[in-house]
């Protein structure tokens, strides 16, 4: 529990000035907390390293956090999971999206759990409050892309897959 609380505190500090893309521009920290909630309370995941990685999953990709910093605070296993689900922001967006689909089947079981929760949370957020400026077409394209990523993650956790499928049913 202590590591989970530390991860929430760390992620809150790292994401403190970031906002989600929804119309309300909700605090970014809501997203990693939603992932941990999906994993722990909806899917019954008790693996502390998975929950911590879920909370930290966007810190390397979206903040000034280094892998070395994460490893020093949360260990090599958590850092490895975070790295597996992090995009290389030096690549063009289309390439990053293509690589997520391509790499999904090859990432570790723990990383797949985090990725499944991430895609589920994103679909739920788009359904509840679409990003400002996103057309219906862009929303549909995101849902279809997320499904292509998740199709490469299947076979590891029936409940998480069902939760994703339920969210996908609300495709705009």
UniProtKB/TrEMBL annotation:
Record InterPro entries: HD/PDEase_dom, HD_domain, MESH1
Source superkingdom: Bacteria
An example Gene Ontology molecular-function term: guanosine-3',5'-bis(diphosphate) 3'-diphosphatase activity
HD domain: residues covered: 28-123
SMART domains, per the entry: HDc
One Pfam family it belongs to: HD_4
PANTHER family in alphabetical order: GUANOSINE-3',5'-BIS(DIPHOSPHATE) 3'-PYROPHOSPHOHYDROLASE MESH1
Protein name as catalogued: Metal dependent phosphohydrolase
Organism this protein belongs to: Propionivibrio dicarboxylicus
């Amino acid at each position: 529990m202590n590591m989970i609380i530390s991860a929430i505190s760390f992620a809150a500090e790292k994401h403190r000035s970031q906002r989600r893309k929804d119309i309300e521009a909700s605090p970014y920290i809501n997203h990693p907390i939603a992932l941990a909630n999906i994993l722990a309370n909806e899917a019954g995941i008790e693996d502390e390293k998975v929950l911590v990685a879920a909370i930290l999953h966007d810190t390397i990709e979206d903040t000034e956090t280094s892998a070395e910093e994460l490893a020093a605070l949360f260990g090599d296993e958590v850092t490895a999971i975070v790295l597996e689900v992090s995009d290389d922001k030096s690549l063009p967006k289309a390439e990053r999206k293509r690589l997520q689909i391509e790499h999904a089947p090859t990432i570790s079981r723990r990383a797949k759990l985090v990725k499944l929760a991430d895609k589920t949370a994103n679909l739920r957020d788009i359904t509840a409050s679409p990003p400002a400026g996103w057309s219906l077409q862009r929303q549909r394209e995101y849902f279809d892309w997320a499904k292509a990523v998740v199709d490469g993650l299947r076979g590891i956790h029936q409940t998480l897959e069902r939760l994703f499928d339920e969210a996908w049913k609300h495709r705009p």
